[in-house]
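Morning, I've got a small favour to ask if you have a moment. I've dropped the whole record in just underneath, so have a look.
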Amino acid sequence: MLLGGFVLEFRIEMASIRPVRRAPRPLLWWLTVCGTGCASGRGPTPTPAETPLPRVSATTGVATTVEPAPTRDDIGARCPAAATPATRSGLHQQAPFDVSAVPPYAFVTSSGLATCVVRPGTGSENPTIGDRVEVHYAGWSTDGTIFEASEPRGQTATFSLRAVIPGWTEGLGLMVEGEVRRLWVPEPLAYAGHPGRPAGMLVFDIELVRIIRAAAP
């Protein structure tokens, strides 16, 4: 209760009631904490960065709230110089120093896939799920053991994005031609514990040589 510029509170102490007076908060304090929301009973007003973006469904017409999509700067997080491979194609012949765990400079997607760009590409488009891709690649387990690579065979490999592990489908979808990207693929996005396949999180360096677009129907 506000009386004569003071807030009157009541406290129960030793079975007696006595009033305790304290000065009210300055108006500037309330505005600092609440913005314009407290006056309307809505609580603190979110800042623009905290305000989610509305999206209207094309099928239902209902507006929903979604988080902002990651920017290209997030998706294009660069590996440090020490992670840069030295071979002609841009792939390591020995395990990179950061294979044991996802490093802090990697960008992690909502699925758990972590990536960083080893070498930027020259293209401007990303492959889509119906495309095929020509790649060089190398893969390691987290103890640094290489289990597969294209360079020793002396030729690139070509895959459909529908025919590779989920971590590759997602990771290649972030890439452009000429790019080399490192992927830390958690087991559910890799071989999911299938017998005879590499287990646990796997690390890949992939060079996207060429996108082979699906034929128009």
Observations:
- Residues 72-212 form a domain with the Chitinase A; domain 3 fold (CATH 3.10.50.40).
- Confidence is low (pLDDT under 50) at residues 1-17, 22-72.
- The chain has two domains: 2-66, 72-212.
- Residues 9 and 20 are 6 Å apart (CA to CA).
